[in-house]
Design goal:
This protein is 38% helix and 16% strand. It is α/β, with parallel strands linked by helices. It is globular and about 60 Å long.
Length: 196
């Protein structure tokens, strides 16, 4: 099972959590969820899957149960089915929350990079253009404040720009990794809210 490591890690971290077991190996059934949910408290459902059928089934069932249960839906990996196949209204109703390396910048707020890009190219920048700007700006500021990149990373702290944030750490073997993420929630009226 692709997500068994994460399931075991979550079960260790949350020992009182219920792990939903499918009674039918082929597909999730409504009773699989109702057996694990509580009517007395808010239910946090962590859905870790890339399978369209499971994600679609689970979100549909959870949304239909939202009148009788307090439910919040979480995932650590917002895969394609969430963007392409699942109703955004369902995700909003479930206060869907996910981790992301980038947030979407608000077109209504002033942003020097986005304004300059739009003026020069006649379109708003893509997420790749924004990420490129953020990484380049971060590297330049680090080089301006330290002898070299390795020294700049030794300083504690998170940097944040248009859509991305950075908090680098040294790997045991090899280079560095960035562990800065955003927690994003689908709010009312389908608005995405950054929680941290």
């Amino acid at each position: 099972m692709k997500h068994s490591y994460l399931r075991d890690k979550l079960a260790y971290r949350f020992p009182n959590a219920n792990v939903i077991k499918q009674s039918n190996k082929e597909y999730l059934q409504r009773k699989d969820l109702t057996n694990a949910l509580s009517k007395d408290k808010e239910n946090w459902v962590i859905l870790e899957s890339d399978e369209l059928g499971l994600i679609s089934n689970a979100t549909s069932y959870l949304n239909s149960m939202a009148d009788n249960y307090k439910i919040r839906l979480f995932t650590s990996n917002k895969s394609e089915p969430y963007d392409d196949e699942v109703s955004n209204q369902y995700l909003s109703n479930l206060k869907f929350t996910y981790a992301s390396v980038a947030r979407e910048y608000d077109l209504k707020t002033r942003n020097g990079f986005a304004e300059a890009y739009s003026k020069n190219y006649g379109i708003i920048p893509s997420k790749y253009a924004v990420r490129g700007f953020d990484i380049t700006f971060d590297v330049l500021l680090r080089l301006a404040t330290a002898e070299n990149l390795a020294e700049s990373i030794k300083r504690e702290g998170t940097t944040e720009y248009v859509e991305n944030r950075f908090n680098y750490h040294k790997k045991m073997i090899g280079g560095y990794y960035n562990d800065a993420v955003y927690l994003i929630e689908y709010g009312e009226n389908l608005e995405l809210k950054v929680l941290n």
